[in-house]
Structures are given as structure tokens and as C-alpha cells.
Design goal:
The protein has helices spanning 13-33, 35-40, 56-64, 68-76, 78-100, 107-130, 139-148, 170-173, 176-194, 199-206, 210-213, 229-235, 269-299, 306-322; strands spanning 45-49, 52-55, 154-155, 158-167, 218-223, 247-249, 252-262, 265-266. It has 323 residues and is an alpha+beta fold. The protein starts with 12 loop residues before the first helix and ends with a helix.
């Protein structure tokens, strides 16, 4: 996929952060809820960090937060278990150093720690209520959802495209004469392609995106969501075999050739059954979460003072503007 044609990918960082936070919350929940049991079951010390012991009971709780596969691997591989415990001990050493330095007493850190503790409590309180019943959804519920939401299970229309890319760096776009020259070059190559010159050969000669140029300009099959918006708009208006005018994007000019098209196709239930199950289970959890929130608010009513909030917001905006 060439840099000029494809839409920039979304960052995956957020998912990674969420997974890490979720793991930390699970560990914290286990340790908090089972803290009394740990105190009562303190057995032999397996690791010493400074003057503090890490006991077998604590390690057992920590292992319980791992997946079955990881836990089994650690318990059957002495070397890996030693490394795992060493890593945890080193982590504890850094935490001890942070507490000794009073980091946990800083107002910003204390607030974040309180938020994390609140989230642990929420998770422990709500999780049992959000558990999906065994056997849900039923076959009938799955079929009904699919029939009512068939538009959600269409495979997107696709085009098979080739491209010739003319790079325009941001600094070049400020030079009108240079940009005009690049645009005229692109128009000339597009005209040659329309007159019957071999598009693949033109791409090899003129395209400045080497991965696709070396492949005769071929990008392959793409959906509209995979293309830059201005390219998608042009590509899906072209018939198979047609060639576009040069299209200006933030990266430069591109000429597109649509080699073939595939219409949107309804995906059968058998192909999307797992997706439907996941959607219905997510809907169930959201419904149960809403019920739990409504019940809590009924006991502890929530009242907001719109005027006070707006006054505070205005003051914050003004204070920020002065900085």
C-alpha cells in the first residue's frame, strides 16, 4: 500500500494503554479484596526487598491474575518463574523508593491513586452484575438480530486501483511555479495514459512512490475507508478501465486507474455469527450497567447546578488565558 494513496492508520497506542490499565486494575482488585486473606495466610518468604518480605501467599495471588497458559508455564519452568519473581521484586523496590521519597503524598499523584482505587471498587462492584448468562444469546436471538441489522453485515464495495504519484512537499507548495510544474507534469502523464500508453510502464517511469511504482503502480483491492477521502471520491466514480485527472491531496498529485470493481455483498449469518454474538453480549452488558447506575442514582440522587458549573468553567477559561 503506497504512502500517497492509503489513509494513515489509527494509532494502536490507546488499545495497548487500556489493556495495561485493565491488567493493573485486575491485579489491584485481587490484592485489595484478598488483602485480609494474605495477612492471615502469610507463609514463607520467597523474596526479600529491603526489609519487606514477598510471601508465597502474595505470589499465589499474583499468579492468579495471569492467564491459565502463562500461570502453567511459570509453574512448570523454574527459570521463568525466577525471572518473573525477580521482575516483580524489582518493581516493588522502585515502588518502595517512590513511597520513601513521598511521591505518593503529592496532590496530583494522590488524586490519580484515588481515581485508580475508585475504578477498582467500581469494577469489583459492577463486574458480577454484568456477567452474561450461559447460553446467551440463543440461536433465535442471533437470527433475529441479524435479520434486523443486515445492513451492518455488508462487505464494502471495493475497487482495484493503480496509481501514479507525484510528490509535493509542504515547502514546495509555497513555490507556485514549482507546484504548477508538478501539476502540469501530472496532467501530461494522465493524458498519455488516456491515449493508450501502458499505465504500469508510466507508473514505473514517473511515480515517486517506489513500492507501488516498482509494481506497475498497483495498489490492489481497497475499500473507500482505506483511501484518502479525495481519492475515494474519485475512485468510486470511475468505471473499470477509466483513468482519473490528477487529484491533489496533502501529499501531492495522484492519477488513479480503476482496474476492476466489486459490489457490496451481503455476508451470510454463518460468516458473521461470532460478531453478532459479541454485539449482543456487549448490548447486554451495557443494559445491565445502565440498570445498575440507575439503581444507584435512585438511592443517591445526582443533582447538578448548571449555573455554578458554567461560572466555574468561565473562570477556568479566563485563568488559563492569562497564563
Amino acid at each position: 500500500m503506497d504512502r500517497g494513496t492509503m489513509r494513515p492508520p489509527d494509532s494502536g497506542g490507546r488499545m495497548a494503554i487500556n489493556k495495561t490499565l485493565a491488567t493493573a486494575l485486575v491485579i489491584a482488585t485481587t490484592l485489595i479484596l484478598c488483602g485480609a486473606a494474605v495477612s492471615a495466610q502469610r507463609t514463607k518468604s520467597l523474596v526479600k526487598v529491603g526489609k519487606e518480605d514477598v510471601t508465597s501467599a502474595e505470589i499465589k495471588l499474583l499468579l492468579a491474575t495471569q492467564s491459565d497458559e502463562v500461570r502453567q508455564q511459570l509453574l512448570t519452568n523454574p527459570k521463568q518463574l525466577q525471572e518473573f519473581l525477580k521482575t516483580e521484586a524489582e518493581r516493588k523496590a522502585v515502588l518502595m523508593e517512590a513511597r520513601a521519597a513521598g511521591v505518593d503524598k503529592r496532590s496530583d499523584v494522590a488524586m490519580l491513586m484515588q481515581r485508580a482505587q475508585d475504578q477498582v471498587l467500581l469494577t469489583a462492584h459492577l463486574s458480577p452484575r454484568l456477567a452474561v448468562p450461559m447460553g446467551y444469546p440463543s440461536d433465535a436471538e442471533i437470527a433475529s438480530y441479524y435479520d434486523k441489522n443486515k445492513e451492518r453485515f455488508l462487505s464494502a464495495e471495493q475497487v482495484n486501483v493503480s496509481t501514479i504519484f507525484f510528490l509535493v512537499l509542504p515547502a514546495w507548495s509555497r513555490d507556485k511555479a514549482l507546484e504548477d510544474k508538478i501539476r502540469l507534469d501530472a496532467q501530461r502523464v494522465a493524458a498519455e495514459a488516456r491515449k493508450g500508453s501502458d499505465f504500469a510502464e508510466l507508473a514505473r517511469l514517473h511515480s515517486q512512490d517506489r513500492p507501488t511504482a516498482d509494481n506497475g503502480g498497483s495498489v490492489g483491492w481497497v475499500t473507500g475507508a482505506q483511501l484518502l477521502p479525495e481519492l475515494a471520491q474519485a475512485a468510486f466514480k470511475l468505471k473499470a478501465g477509466e483513468i482519473s485527472d490528477p487529484i491533489r491531496t496533502q501529499l501531492g498529485y495522484q492519477i488513479l486507474r480503476v482496474n476492476d470493481r466489486r459490489p457490496a455483498v451481503q455476508r451470510p449469518l454463518a460468516d458473521v455469527r461470532a460478531i453478532v454474538v459479541q454485539l449482543l453480549q456487549n448490548d447486554y452488558r451495557q443494559m445491565k450497567e445502565r440498570e445498575a447506575i440507575d439503581a444507584a442514582v435512585k438511592t443517591y440522587p445526582v443533582l447538578t447546578d448548571a449555573a455554578a458549573i458554567e461560572t466555574w468553567r468561565s473562570e477556568e477559561v479566563a485563568a488559563t488565558a492569562k497564563k
